[in-house]
Amino acid sequence: MGSGLDIRTVSTVTATALAVADMIGIGVFTSLGFQVASIPSAFSVLLLWIVGGVAALCGALAYAELAAAFPRSGGEYNFLSRIYHPAVGFLAGWISATVGFSAPIALAAMAFGVYFKAISPDIPPLFLGLAVVWIVTAVHLSGIKHSSKFQNISTLIKIALIVALIIAGLAYGTPQPISFAPSADDWTYVASAPFAVSLVFVMYAYSGWNAATYIAGEIREPSVSLPRSIVAATLIVIAGYVALNAVFLYTTPISAMAGQIDVALVAGKHIFGEFGGRIVGGLICIGLISSISAMTWIGPRVTMAMGKDHGLLQALSRTTSDGVPKTAILLQLGIVTVLLMTQSFEAVLDTIQFSLTLCSFLAVLGVIVLRWTEPGLPRPYRTWGYPVTPFIFLGVTAFMMYYLVVERPLQSLAGLAIMLTGLAVYAFSQRRSLIGARPQ
């Protein structure tokens, strides 16, 4: 087994594909139905996705500065340890290493099983979910070279299918009597509570723009590649999300989509007829494979980075000869399998949203903190639009956290409790290190 040394073999293209795949999950195919139920305006809904995209881009620009300055795998674990204190970073890493990636993988895997029913209704969703997770994990255990190829190809297929759906909708869909031009009523919708609430879920659909920072230690020329991949991926997804929602609105009556969770299937039937459900179901399944692959790659890199820094977790830092963190990947697979078998992933995901949002908030805030505390720090990339762009992201994220605390106080507190259990592990690890360092 290797010692966990960083092996930089990942290209800018693969890092971009990883972020795109991590972002485009199930959210864009399900959330429109709830948005049009309270915002029955094409312009306002598209503006919602544009505003969410701009906020995500502002976060991406800030993360690009941090990633270029501290090009090590681990994402927020790496950033917060460096900016504030190793204990703060450990808390971020703890939530990511335990359930932060495992729960979304389990949810995506179960969604894969459910949407596959549109193609073959006889196979149990749980069996399909477990199968896709185990197969994708086997690919990632086979080596970074295979992981890169699989990620690039699956993401390329996903983007191609989404573009094909957009073109087919414009070419064959029946235009609806809607207007994408702003009207006087639209500004009432934009200033309403439903618009603000919907923005929270749009931001969740954009989450994943920071994916490349979790594998920074494996990326070639990280000071150049990381900023490019983070920003490029976010711009690609903004364009795709806005275009996809525009096609759904253009081809499908708002009344047919309002309140529906499977809005993509509804739109598919309006574009392609009854067979359209199968087409869109297959598209979503393929898209979910690349999302599962991205998170299967990212999550164990956080665990591996923690293992390198803390003797108590040293076993998790072990890698194969080409740098694959085998033990960390198998640990994540075990957690995902348990979550799928117990059907507890949705509750876990609901619980950790506040903690994950808080970690992103602290990371972007850290760009401002470091500009004051370490003005001489080498910064190969500096955040475009500073300080306006970080403040835009901080404002949107602060609103999201406020909404989560007000609407889901128990879940938010439980998420913080899970995060804080990491303090006990951190303290025990530090105590063991001190005891081991004492002269005998």
Automatic annotation (TrEMBL):
Topology term for the membrane: Multi-pass membrane protein
UniProt keywords, alphabetically: Membrane, Transmembrane, Transmembrane helix
GO terms for cellular component: membrane
This protein's record includes keyword Protein transport: no
Gene Ontology terms for molecular function: L-amino acid transmembrane transporter activity
Principal place of residence: membrane
Keyword Transmembrane helix set for record: yes
InterPro entries linked to this entry: AA/rel_permease1, AminoAcid_Transporter
Subcellular location field: Membrane
Pfam families: AA_permease_2
Transmembrane segments: 12-34, 46-66, 87-114, 126-144, 156-175, 187-209, 230-250, 279-298, 327-345, 351-372, 384-404, 410-428
Name recorded for this polypeptide: Amino acid/polyamine/organocation transporter, APC superfamily
Source organism of this protein record: Hyphomicrobium facile
